[in-house]
Amino acid sequence: MKDGAPAPGFDAVNSPAMLAEGPELAGRTVRMRTTAGTVGARAVADAPLLLYASFVVAGATARFLRSRAVPEATFVVTGDGGRAEEDRACAELIARRVDGGAVEAAPYVARARSSVAAADLAEGVWRGYAGVHPDDVELSLDTDRFPFVMVAAREGGPLVLRPVSTPGAG
User: Long-range contacts of range 149-158, CB-CB < 8 Å, 24 or more positions apart?
Assistant: First the structure.
């Protein structure tokens, strides 16, 4: 899986809507290569705890951090050279939920929806670019869609993501 248009050697693109439509990934190993996320993860790969987070797992990520009584968390904003508004909004939502529990997602989602990245995706759809879908922004902002957190750890060299259920998921 990679960002952008389909490329030789990759069976899927980094499009939530296109992934939902196929190919079937159950039981398969998925290798990801994204423009910024992979680079950011590799930069912090040796952290004692590494979570991949997004709006779709924001609540689960906050619950996980609270349940583990993590004294301090560092959010790595990987998009737009560390300035991506959608990444910052998501990180701030998770941090507020860790600190205060039930925090309304709407203001953070609105920031992400009006970000440069969302506008770029909309332009890609308008221009008919392969690898983007009209539903990608909304699917990526579907807050708390999944009841698990994505934990990354080295397994024989590469980082491997595994879903981990969180307390209070429902």
Answer: 149/51, 149/53, 149/57, 149/60, 149/61, 149/63, 149/64, 150/51, 150/52, 150/53, 150/57, 151/49, 151/50, 151/51, 152/41, 152/45, 152/50, 152/51, 152/52, 153/50, 154/45
